Amino acid sequence: MPSDSHPRAGAVLLREARAEDADALTRLFLDSRAAALPYLPRVHSDEATLGWMTHVVLPGTDVWVAELGKDGGTAEPVGFVSVDGDEIEQLYLRPDMRRRGIGTRLLAKARERSPQGLGLYTFQRNADARAFYERHGFTAVGFDDGSRNEENEPDVRYRWSPAG
Predict the structure, then answer these.
(1) What's the domain count of the chain?
(2) The domain spanning residue 145 has which CATH number?
(3) Is 1 inside a domain boundary?
(4) pTM
(5) Which residues make beta-bridge pairs with 158?
(6) Of all residues in the chain, what percent carry a pLDDT higher than 90?
(7) What distance in Å separates the CA atoms of residue 82 and residue 4, rounded to the nearest whole number?
């Protein structure tokens, strides 16, 4: 099935993101963060977040979307990964789509795009994300006090290399 075809109802397909995905990916990003990270301060409006998605994330990184097929041949985004070189910048799932293997598929796509290795940051308090990355072979290589991110939330640096 070509990468831009819609998956059959109930199936998930990965495809490259398009500019017209900005609204849906922004909503997915905001909903996911609100559900998984309720303690995180909102430092940008929805409109500013849409601008960031439209003008920074989509044109500036390699973005793959996980789409869930619906009846009638339509599909809706349920997750995405954004990779810049060997750095995972974003990996988010719609809150009700967690623990279905979609994050693992998106991570596999990131590894395919950067087979030499990957790095990422996640918040120290994000225990679910940390467990996910550790389960997939990422190793914590550094911790900081949050001064490097807008939320001022302590984070952890992870690395994955194919050699282990």
Answers:
(1) 1
(2) 3.40.630.30
(3) no
(4) 0.90
(5) 120, 140
(6) 80
(7) 18
